[in-house]
Fold this sequence. Notes:
2 copies of one chain form a homodimer.
Chain A: H1 10-23, E1 29-30, H2 35-38, E2 46-51, E3 56-60, E4 66-67, H3 72-92, H4 120-128, H5 135-150, H6 158-167, H7 169-180, H8 188-199, E5 202-203, H9 205-216, H10 231-244, H11 250-256, E6 261-263, E7 268-273, E8 277-282, E9 285-286, H12 293-305, E10 321-326, H13 338-347, E11 351-360, H14 362-374, E12 380-391, H15 393-408, E13 412-416, H16 422-432, H17 436-439, E14 441-443, H18 446-461, H19 483-490, E15 494-498, E16 503-505, E17 513-519, E18 522-527, E19 533-539, E20 544-545, H20 547-552, E21 559-562, E22 566-572, H21 573-582, H22 584-612
Parallel strand pairs in A: 11-12, 12-13, 13-14
Antiparallel strand pairs in A: 1-9, 2-3, 2-8, 4-5, 6-7, 7-8, 10-11, 15-22, 16-21, 17-20, 17-22, 18-19, 18-21
Helix pairs in contact in A: 1-12, 3-4, 3-10, 4-7, 4-8, 5-8, 6-8, 7-8, 13-18, 14-15, 15-16, 21-22
Amino acid sequence: MTPEPNSSSPIRDQLAALHREFSEIHDGTVATYIPELGKADPDWFGICVVTTNGGVYEVGDSRQEFTIQSLSKPFVYGLALEDHGRAEVLAKVGVEPTGDAFNSISLDPVTGCPRNPMINAGAIASTGLVEGHTADARIRRILEMFAHYAGRDLAIDEQVYVSESATGHRNRAIGHMLRNFGILTDDPMPVVETYFQQCSILGHCRDLATMAATLANRGVNPLTGQQAIRGEYVESVLGVMGTCGMYDYAGEWLYDVGMPAKSGVSGGVIAVLPGQLGIGVFSPRLDAKGNSVRGIRVCSALSRRWDLHLFNRPGIGRAAIRLRLNAAEFNSSRVRSPAESEVLREHGRAIQVFQLQGNFLFATAELIVRELTELTGLESLILDFRHVLSINESAAHLFHDILIRLHAAGVAVLFTGVENAASLRRLMRARLGARFEEIFRTFDDPDPALEWCEERLLARLLPEIPDVSIAVTQYALLDGLSREEVATVQSLFQRRTYEPGESIIRVGEPARELFFLSRGLVSVFLPLEGGAQKRLATFSPGMVFGEMAVLDRAPRSASITADTPVSCDLVSLPRLTALGVTHPKIKIRLLENLSLDLCRKLRKANREIALLV
Amino acid sequence: MTPEPNSSSPIRDQLAALHREFSEIHDGTVATYIPELGKADPDWFGICVVTTNGGVYEVGDSRQEFTIQSLSKPFVYGLALEDHGRAEVLAKVGVEPTGDAFNSISLDPVTGCPRNPMINAGAIASTGLVEGHTADARIRRILEMFAHYAGRDLAIDEQVYVSESATGHRNRAIGHMLRNFGILTDDPMPVVETYFQQCSILGHCRDLATMAATLANRGVNPLTGQQAIRGEYVESVLGVMGTCGMYDYAGEWLYDVGMPAKSGVSGGVIAVLPGQLGIGVFSPRLDAKGNSVRGIRVCSALSRRWDLHLFNRPGIGRAAIRLRLNAAEFNSSRVRSPAESEVLREHGRAIQVFQLQGNFLFATAELIVRELTELTGLESLILDFRHVLSINESAAHLFHDILIRLHAAGVAVLFTGVENAASLRRLMRARLGARFEEIFRTFDDPDPALEWCEERLLARLLPEIPDVSIAVTQYALLDGLSREEVATVQSLFQRRTYEPGESIIRVGEPARELFFLSRGLVSVFLPLEGGAQKRLATFSPGMVFGEMAVLDRAPRSASITADTPVSCDLVSLPRLTALGVTHPKIKIRLLENLSLDLCRKLRKANREIALLV
């Protein structure tokens, strides 16, 4: 009844419609400054969009290869940044746009620095900054980098390279000028050759979109998971693309399209929407400024139709908080006595749970910190990170700061689901030093964390229960029985004790007894695949367990283990059956008490579900 | 035990530390081109940050007023856009950066258009585009706009205005040049006077940050909720700020700070991080380019320390999906018979629930559409929008496209929580036309939506139950009783019928009977404050209700109403009590069946809670 998997998508359909629409445009001319480029079919036209979530949409000649030309510039600039850091690179290549054409020399008259890395002079200087003992080693590193960006090995078109090299006198002149100013420090000619090679790398539209999406995804190729450039340098690569990527069209481009972009003389265009997606377009006909005519039109149309303008962002709102709970309305799987339940209902607001989600940046962490700062009467706080995708440095700092404040005010702060939040853990360890273990309390699972907070609250508000066996009159199931009736039930009891960790009930065993818990704590576990187990409930003295299998005479459906030294009063199934015959009034009372208890628990569970959905 | 509300925040502390650090910088000089500006205390220094969530953090001289000067330019440009639209404004004022100083004339040699609205010529042209029959009307509209941006009325400093006007010969020359080229169409002198007035508007740091945050929040002041500029023009205002806002420092600014920004000669700087926050800094000492020295340093430091660079965004990941459920693991509050439960457990994956969250843009909707396109065996789909903050046009389009596809494939798509998703509803109505009512199925609440899907599945897989009273042997509570025992219970029954909508049990009534449902559907409601009520459960024939109050002899805690024509068999409390004496074995069996049923429901509820948390 559903569409086939991998069938066409509405997004691909939208792109196909755009492709049809813009196929009608025949303005512009194919670059011919080297003969090889002139061989391109002017009607080639491909579009591809790759999202940071790994969605790929391509139409038209999206697998037609062409030499990437100037599209290589931002990527090689990124490699130079990785090799030398921002300061050193900035000392050699500026970042100011020029009103000049792509092949202008545009060196600063005083320092000789190229104005930016997107003009040829800046690009050649960037290539010169790529580490490598030989020209061969340098181009190998460049090709390796492009393989990470594109997710496949890209080759050099030798014919185009030879043609570039044979006609590249202007670029050789630039190389010598750069050597003259000391921007290039060795023989500039091998660097210029490497530059010709990088321009002659063959890629197709899907490669372009993947490369752009890798920049959008902080340097991680969303299709392969490979890191193509360190995340910290992505903003610099996009920064120069933002102001210098479209030659002297930068202002209008950022105004109209609103994405960092780069075009190449062979007809390729890439555009990057940080965090979201990359676009690659290929159409060889160029306008007077050297940008692909259809490439610009497609990016502009997509920006408008898909609302991709970088400056047009909705407010982040409260989307960072998935759920806020407190222990007055939601509790751990520790089963509580009526007295305990009453205390939690009344004072549980002192325990707050913030379930966080998404990417934590300054502005998302700010909201959490502000809400926490404004809370009153807080005793324990659980910050649950299981649904958090990333935490940046500034957000981690804010979590540290609020932790310190709350800790100083006597609030226990528990972190759950931080196994994968390496940046948070690292910052906490660095900032908290010796107090790290004491202050940065972590729990794998929010359920025991919540129990810990509940216990803390109950310990403060309820008298301590001595760790001895309780009186039989304290069994909730015996409520309402006369002294004689209690004695009758007691005569059926068999006392059994367990060591901490000892198994009381195992999954699959036949049900032989009902258990009254007299001393200690027991937990119910469900075995999961792979040997792990999930806690379903924890019981404390006065409660009964093992009743379900007794009622339906089925094998045990969960395991029960002693958490502490445990004493139980067991009633065997035959004795329980006999009780219905000899003392039906008692049996009826037990069952009524049991039903009522189950009713109440079911109501609470349903209230909790309503809170969570 | 917790910090006082409104006590200092860690974010304010970080700003205070930054303020102390940069107070040490004494570079630069106060502008003196008009005498009034020269009166500023060079040591004034304020910082304010306002988030789109309404957080406000201010330190130093954040309430010291000063004239906003060039900071007025982007806002007035925005008003010109609102008055004339993008195309008409672009025909008169360009958007390309110039390498020239702020007061350069910079008109296009052919068209006479100012290069961009951030230089004086472009700003005066923008002021000329503000609608208003008189100069007075025009400045009133400008002041009204600023009041929306700042959240308070801003005044004009008359002394500064007079001083600007007395010395503004260059700007008058610009005015006449603009008139010469037909960019201004009337007497240019009143426009230049209005321009002097807008530059003389008094604001402080907190105003600047609020204005910046309003741009970050798509034109809605996050502190007052007032719309200061239509959302569609915000990207254009930020676009010119991005490339032209910091005079000839644009490339380095976008590279280093990565936020659209604007500075003014009196020492103010604003920076905007779209979707997140606005920054305002005030410090009158300027560098050679006319930008506040400390202003630039503060923005640069905040960008670095708080990771505010616009091009440095983490991938959006799967944050758009709050929860995915299916009816094999999670069900509506319709209580199911064992046979129905079994069918749902086995086939419930054909019913999928996507709980969405946050802002829906192209890239977030893409993920949902892709997952939906890849699903197989889907019969019904619930898209729950209750946690969605906004849906842009492109996302709404994608939801439309996927709806059409799934509908054509026979999948029922139900939308819940779309009351506030006006844009989605509007687009669906426009695109679906006459089929809108049929195809765009909406439910206020996901619970009845899920029930609807379950009913559809069960109708397909289970034989239809005729709408007649069932046989008493079909009451689940009587399972395991002999024919004679069933007859005994039956002798206690009193038949009662109800019309649809008729009340069966009211909150607060004493519990007098246990109800066996023989025909029809009944729902349990909890009254909420304000007269509304929440459905807790719906029962179908064969089930029992009203047992809890019978067990604990307390007044009814919820209301029960007939959804359809209903027949019930009632057992009064006295008869039920008597049954324990006359036929204890039957009573025990009833209670065992009840306990077992409650046990199973409790387990299912606990499994659902574990899914949801």
